[in-house]
Amino acid sequence: MKHKFNYTTIARRFTSHYPLLSSLITQISFWIMANAVLGLIIFLYVRSLESIYPVIADQRLSPVMVIAILLGFLYGATLGLVDHYVEIFSFQKRSIGQIILIKTILSVGTLTTMLWLILDKLHEFIFASVIQQHQLPINDRFWHYVLCMLVVYYLFMTLIINFAIQVNKKFGPGVLLPLLFGKYRNPIEEERIFMFMDLKSSTSIAESSGHLQYSAFIRDSFYDINQLIPRYHAEVYQYVGDEIVLSWTVPEGLRKLACIQFFLPVKNSLRIKQIITRKTTDAYHSLKPDFIWVSW
User: Fold this and answer.
1) Where are the transmembrane segments (predicted)?
2) What confidence score (pLDDT) does residue 287 get?
């Protein structure tokens, strides 16, 4: 059976199998484009100055683009590694605003350090000879303002990429681009496999634990389930109270029977969490998350 090309399915599969590579590709692609735009702006600005102060030999765009691409690759690779490993160890259960803020601070700090080192070397090997040849009145204050300009630009770009990454994670890999290009503006028919996972004995649990602990219990149970979703290429259709509705495209759901295989790891994950937290005296941890499911 021949299937149409589905970008969302391919993106989800690739991200779940190669999360580090996916992070690197995202960051490198973005920073190459961001640096290319910055390089073009600087090139046009320098050419405009040359028309008034013809002190520098004719400049070409190609060397600027080469440097921009190389620096974009360097920035992207560094920030891709930082983003991937910091996400694993530090950002579980944090709000989107906190994640964006922390990542932006880390990214700008990393970029500022790299910029300082790169500008120092470029000044020594490239700019120094040009400055001496044309006797340009450039001093340390000039480089200070250049560094500040680049930091402001990269701060803005970092906010954009971190926001886009978090939105992409909330929608799921492979959804943001089709959304921007209007794929979901008009209704379409699709054959999908659905799984309905409903919490057992939810009324008695809510009565025994209180509404605050019960809400935290539901939140953490859904969080644990969400950690397994990418591995089985599922999509969250909606949350309804204590129920979570998942769906697969037919090819993805039948691929290695993912729509059936998904349930057992969920049961095991919740059971392991219950065993680990059993020693605590907190009534919240004595709750037993268990789900029944129906699918078609």
Assistant:
1) 20-45, 65-86, 98-119, 142-165
2) 52
Q: Which of 153, 178, 203 is the last residue of a domain?
A: 178
Higher pLDDT among residues 28 and 136, named by residue: 28
Q: How far apart, in whole angstroms, are the C-alpha atoms of residue 221 and residue 198?
A: 11
Question: What CATH number should be reported for the domain holding residue 267?
Answer: 3.30.70.1230
Q: What is the mean pLDDT of residues 141-160?
A: 82
- Other C-beta atoms closer than 10 Å to the C-beta of 86 total 15
26 with 159, same domain: the answer is yes
Token pair 């005296």: residue: 281
CA distances from 109 to 42, 156, 179 (A): 23, 13, 32
CA 108, 19, 250 angle in degrees (round to 5)?
A: 135
> What is the domain range of residue 118?
7-178
Residues 214 and 282 in one domain: yes
* Percent of the chain topping pLDDT 70: 76
- DSSP H helices in 173-262: 176-180, 202-209, 211-228, 250-254, 258-261
pLDDT at 32: 93
